[in-house]
User: Fold this.
Amino acid sequence: MNIRLAGGVVAAQWCAWVPGPAGPERADGADVRPGAPVVLGPEDAADDEVARAVAALRLLVADGGAVAAGAGVDLGAGFRSGRLEGARGDQRDAVLAALRAVGVRDAGRLGDRAAVMVALFGPSATKRVGAAAARAVEEGRWDALHLASAASDVLGPEQLERVLDLDAPQPVIFEGSPSALGEDLRRVLEAVPRPRRLDLVLDLWGRVVDGRIEEARRARRRATQSRRDRMADLIARRNHFADERVLQQLRSERPPDVSMGEVARWVPPDSYWHTVLCGLVLDALAATALLRTAVAVADHGVEEGLVRSAKLLDAVVHEARDDATVYDARRVPGLTGLPARPGAYVRDLLRQVGKPEDARLTGYVRPRLASARDYALATVRDIVETLDRLDTRVPEPALRGWAELRLEDWRRRAGYSGVRPPEEWEGIGPWAERMLGGEPLSARVAGAGGDAAAVEVIGDFLWYVDLIDALAQVHGHDRAQAEQGTGEPWYTHEVEPAPETGPGYESVTRAVSGTARLVAFGGAPPKGVRTWPALVDALLAGTAVTEVLTGEFKIPAPLAALDGAEVAGHRVRFARNARDLAEWGDYMGNCILVYADDGESGTSVLAGLYDSGGRMVANAELVPLKPATRGWNVAQFEGRFNQEGPPGLGEALRARVAAIPGAGRAEPEAGETPDGAVPPARPVRRGGRDRLLAEAGPALRERIRPDGAALGVLAVLAGTAPDAAAVRIRRTSVERLAADCARALDGRAADLAGVWDATEHRPLRDAVEALDPAVRARFDRLARLFGEPPLPKSLRRLVRLPVIADAYAVDLAARRVRRALGLLAVRDDPALARAVRRRTTEPLLCALAVHTTCARPEIALAPVSAPRGVAVPGFPASSLADEDGPWRRALSVAPEFGSGVGGFWDEIAEHGLRVPASWLPPGGWPALWSRAHR
Assistant:
């Protein structure tokens, strides 16, 4: 018989067998899917020989996947592997997968070495290329071999040798086949001269390797901190310490027999508040030292990390020499064993500097560093709460006296961090204005000839932001980010990544595929570039790509002349894309990034105003008046942290913008007055977005019902307090959130059914659905609240309202957690598999099964139902065709896991319903289905 194999090969006079439930089956008599792996051998082969060959095929597929069978691997006794026609990819995919499966010693099973090299590299397969490939295989540098095979279409033999010599400490190619990567490389590089192609490939490899090294460094830094959230315990311990301090002050001023009335009337003197405030500064310095020491230990090891941090640790101890309470580590019955203040741990670590690294030193140092994050967060909380109540409790002279205390001794000993130079520090406007009211530190440093230590004072609050910078660094970021809003604590360690219009560098495959999409959009690769980012920038700058991508903001022609112009001694710059807004929001401490979609649509133009020193001092939103012929208006003008901008600048900008002509029209619109006539006064109408806020806002707030249990589950996943969990999850990447969910499930801090129930709680969605149908019909845009950001401007205003903002954050967090669970499912994560086997529910199991069926992940999947069948085995009975059954309901929920369900019925027709085999307990699917109904 003639058997059609992958690649158009016809195997004449051979017979094909596939593994069957009862043993080997002839491929021509079984219901075999296209591209299925098969055993090829003589038709008269003995049954026991066929059985051994099929067993060998099973092992090959288990190690290398179905694609490895296409390499024609020797299965013994004259049998070889193969794949039926309909398989994806080409021969190099099969050969590379088979090589990884059989290993170096058994590479001869793939056939002649020269033929293998030709399959991998095509005509470029010289002897030297083959030798370089053999070295790569022996040394396990599979990513280099993968990239070289993919690049063989665009690189010559000598260039391939350079690629095959590449090495990486961590994998840089996670997914995809060499053929798919090769197709993308050909699309990107075929227009680039051959000598330049290798430079680009090597540059891309280096950038991805650097990114992987950086990610590993961030992971080590995060690992220095305890996974256990001890904030609540530490706050209780610090509150007890504060109470003791109050009692000590009271006893020193009052006799022992003081009455309760006198205690109630007692007003803390200025000396008390001076002690409290200075103690908070010392706590901030100590927590900063702990965090930076944790970073040094993560980067350089315990012994060297302590040595590198010795100067900083010693500076903290010296600064606190007159504050004995900073070393108070006495235990309090019923409270945590952590000291109330971080200075005690700083003292302990300083005593260990210079000791050789061993298990004893590591066991002493790491537990003390593991609490650095908790001390930092507790200190930030105390600083904010204390400063919030200063206006009513502390006399203004006392407050200013504390704020004007110098930090010269501290800075001479500890220095500056380098990530936030004092000569560029403009301060935290709202706090500095209350306490100093003078010029910022940057101006004073310039006046002092660059000697920042001589002029810095506590009221500059650079020490406070140093603390949050150190907190950001231990979480893997370079420095803290200004809060995207106007509220304290003004800076956050949870840094939002800047928007990217081009491909990222998480892996070689993703970077190349993203760049290939830009070429497909019409970008023309330039001929002279040597680096991958330069190539991407050139593609993004192409006119055709710009028209396709929506990231570039529209600047209407009448305003173009204002870009770069000078207004009242300040330079005006317009935002060109969301990256500009992200950088502005980071520095200005406002939420200007949420206006990105308005900038893209051209409904508003976002501007930054810079002083003569090149520093941004204000942001403005410019909007067209109605009708458009009336010109433009400055809708918003705000300084840093949404404070007032420089005096007179706002008025000057408004006057300049008002003078810009509007868009002209050849014909007057209907109802418009003739030239020279004064139009009649029109009644003021409330805008649609105002009606939305006025009518829907209060109605939604009344119907929002928070669920404390759901927030508790989210808090476990986020590793933070319930009131901060939704925001933390929203700002966490899906990859990181998936890892957090896996840890929580594996440690049984949360069970899968409980996570499902918690993410079913959508307070804002439920509130919208509870609205009067007439209100929902009038404001149909409310449905967009259930999608992903960005939102229209009117809805952004709505979700910034109190109560609604919290509900919206919980809705978003719930969807992100489900997306993370979906990622664990397609990766066949063992933690999720164990959680499914322990406890699941019918809705959860159905949704996950639909998700894995539609996603078609390259993992071991176990069939649940027969192809083209709708009956699902197990008790109670269920059917995929039941309109009111659990499977139809799951179709509407499964997309939240990250899969499209459009091809669900195609998958059912071809393979049937499938789930990861790792989910099935003894007894298979019927046992799992039964557990879901207990």
Summary: Residues 686-839 form one domain. The mean pLDDT is 84. The longest strand covers residues 616-624. The CA atoms of residues 232 and 721 lie 8 Å apart.
